[in-house]
Design brief:
With about 160 residues, this protein is an alpha+beta fold. The chain contains seven helices and four strands; from the N terminus they run βααβααβααβα. It binds uridine-5'-diphosphate. The site of uridine-5'-diphosphate (UDP) has 9 residues, from loops.
């Protein structure tokens, strides 16, 4: 795909970002969305829901043998989550940087976890960790019809590259 206006390759990379139940409880949804908009990424999917055990056990299938697995599922079902799909250049890797290290002690100030979290079991946000992982997670959480492929008609930080 190439952009009709610039002739440059269209950026189709997408990632799944979720505000976890503690982020919703703490009214951090707006601040988290703002960071991704401000960076220039494009929101193509958004919904709030109470996550099911089925979806979560698929989402965290790689962690089934971990000692924290059961408490992780309890945490993730303790209240609603806000799940989003963001699109843009290198969005998977850049989002991981914006979200910060899994261990809040190592999460840099300026990252979501570095600014809002002090414990690994209440770390506010999820971000896909690879392009393939993102594709799987997007399919798991969203139906294709609920993702919006919209054209941007204003100048953004990405419209010149
Ligand atoms: N987690 C936890 N205790 C741990 C490690 C992870 O409760 O010791 C939870 C935490 O919510 C984390 C999630 O499990 O975000 C998934 O872990 P992963 O290692 O995939 O980290 P992430 O990709 O979320 O940074």
């Amino acid at each position: 795909h190439r952009s009709k206006s610039t002739g440059l390759p269209d950026v189709r990379e997408r990632t799944l970002i979720a505000v976890k139940p503690d982020g919703v409880q703490r009214r951090l949804v707006g601040q988290i969305i703002q960071r991704f908009e401000q960076r220039g990424f494009k929101l193509v999917g958004l919904k709030m829901l109470q996550a099911s055990q089925d979806v979560l056990s698929e989402h965290y299938c790689g962690l089934r043998t971990k000692p924290f697995y059961n408490s992780l599922l309890r945490y993730m079902t303790s209240g609603p989550v806000v799940v989003m799909v963001w699109e843009g250049h290198n969005v998977v890797q850049t989002s991981r940087t914006m979200v910060g290290h899994t261990n809040p002690a190592e999460a840099m100030a300026g990252t979501v976890r570095g600014d809002f979290s002090m414990h690994v079991s209440r770390n506010v946000v999820h971000a896909s960790d690879s392009v393939e992982g993102a594709q799987k997670e997007i399919q798991l959480w969203f139906q294709a019809k609920d993702l919006v492929d919209w054209d941007c008609w204003v100048q953004t930080s990405t419209s010149e590259v």
